[in-house]
Specification:
The chain is of the alpha/beta class. It has helices at residues 15-28, 46-51, 70-80, 100-108, 130-146, 148-151, 181-188, 213-229, 232-260, 265-286, 301-311, 313-328, 333-361; strands at residues 2-8, 33-40, 59-64, 85-88, 113-117, 162-165, 194-198. It is built from 13 helices and 7 strands. Helix 1 (15-28) links the parallel strand 1 and strand 2. Helix 9 (232-260) runs antiparallel to helix 13 (333-361) and helix 11 packs across helix 13 (333-361).
Length: 364
């Protein structure tokens, strides 16, 4: 049975349409289901409208005493659920209930976790403004950067629409903060197969968004807590030590070749950068990614090296550009090398961490 968990707060205007469409979709897919609406003391009669459908739809309401948050609503609803699969979706029709059918199909075909994704082929965000798209993409990229070991291979870890086998949550010790429960689940659940199902996020037609400054702050706190609680922070420390060693090699070798060996700056810089990249790659193989349950130097190493070098081209190019400009402007060799390394490292940190970590995590 699929237990559809729907958190609500003042959704009376749309809740009945949401439930009817969800029920029609799951019936059409031949699924046995129930709907658990978790209502945070809505003042607009949301709970009463759900209860009025009891003879039409297998839906019931869990009433909570106030606004306690979306993530905890999902867990409280799950505690009341009878199904072996949990489905989670919003009540406001921004998550099309019809997406429940392909999510259920993915679970029945062997997935442990099926995510409704805006950011895979076939997905989208309807009429979002460029600013809203940028905020969403930035938040998604930030999550994948802070937690690349868990999220680097997931296109839409911020989704609020997903299904998961209840068995995958056993002993997961979920302790979410804020409204992004899926981050907690991806980081802590015990799943083997994750599938992303495309859907188009719809604009809210009625009611008001519940997101505000508080939710954004909670999101940042949640990422930090997950990094510490999942072991990702330890992996980051190892990764940082390797990167620091590479920076020292880059700077020291460049200065040595130019000042002591009499090399021209251009070839010396290229050799120094390549030496640093090789250092970072092989130490990552042997040291950083042992924590990812990968054996050092396992098959495919040379393909990973080629991929890693390709990913780092942009950072290397920026390193060369900044170092060269510094020298042209009359700066010293050591200062130029340091500036170039800082610039290239910053670019990789801000833009390339998820795809760099996918080199070892086996993602897309």
């Amino acid at each position: 049975m699929i237990s559809v968990i729907i958190p609500t707060y003042n959704e009376a205007a749309v809740i009945q349409e949401t439930l009817r469409r969800a029920a029609e979709t799951l019936r059409g897919a031949g699924e046995d289901f129930e709907i658990v609406v978790v209502d945070d003391a809505s003042a607009d009669g949301t709970a009463e409208r759900v209860e009025s459908l009891a003879g039409e739809i297998p839906a019931r309401v869990l009433r909570r005493p106030g606004r306690l948050g979306l993530a905890t609503a999902v867990l409280d609803g799950g505690a009341q659920a009878r199904g072996d699969v949990w489905a989670v979706m919003d009540a406001d029709l921004q998550h099309p209930p019809e997406t429940l059918a392909p999510l259920a199909r993915a679970i029945r075909e062997g997935a442990d976790l099926a995510i409704g994704s805006r950011y895979v082929k076939g997905g989208g965000t309807s009429d979002w403004t460029w600013l809203r798209k940028m905020i969403s993409r930035t938040a998604t990229h930030m999550a994948a950067t802070v937690l690349p070991l868990k999220l680097a291979s997931v296109g839409d870890p911020m989704s609020g629409l997903f299904m998961i086998r209840k068995s995958a949550l056993e002993d997961a010790r979920l302790n979410p903060l804020g409204y992004k429960i899926l981050l907690e689940i991806i980081a802590k659940a015990h799943y083997r197969k994750l599938v992303e199902v495309p859907y188009v996020f719809q604009e809210r037609e009625q009611g008001a968004s519940k997101l505000g400054a508080r939710q954004y702050v909670e999101y940042l706190r949640h990422l930090a807590r997950l990094a510490a609680g999942t072991g990702q922070l330890r992996s980051w420390i190892r990764y940082g030590l390797v990167a620091l060693a590479g920076a020292v090699i880059d700077i020291a070798l460049f200065v040595l070749l130019v000042k002591k060996a009499g090399w021209r700056p251009a070839p010396a810089l290229l050799l120094a950068i390549e030496a640093a990249l090789l250092n970072n790659f092989f130490w990552s193989e042997a040291f950083t990614f042992r924590s990812a349950e990968l054996s050092a130097f396992h098959p495919g190493m040379w393909a990973r090296l080629a991929r890693y070098e390709g990913i780092c081209i942009a950072g290397a190019a920026l390193n060369c550009l900044v170092t060269g400009l510094w020298l042209v402007l009359g700066g010293g060799i050591l200062a130029a090398a340091m500036a170039g390394v800082l610039a290239g490292g910053a670019l990789n940190l801000l833009l390339n961490v998820p795809v760099i970590w996918r080199t070892w995590s086996g993602g897309r």
